[in-house]
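Lab notes, practical 5.
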Amino acid sequence: MGIIAWIVIGLLAGLIAKALTPGRDPGGLLLTTLIGIGGGLLGGWLGKVIFKVDAVDGFFELSTWIAAVVGSVVLLLILRLFTGRRSRHA
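Output from the prediction step:
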């Protein structure tokens, strides 16, 4: 897949992950895209390690989208753990 495909998958997977996990999220569109791209990489890696399958086959493959969304949800939850611990006291 090309860089444009990774950006598109990242944006859409990040948006889906934010829709699936209710609550306030840090960042805007750029962070959402980066979460989606990282989630796609994480989901592909987890698919290879856990299920011994190539989860990132192509842009139009369902396994690619599932891996990207699952990985994005995991990254979003991890991000919330770290950003939620910040003290809001002045």
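Observations recorded by the TA: DSSP finds three helices and no strands in the chain. Residues 3-84 form one domain.
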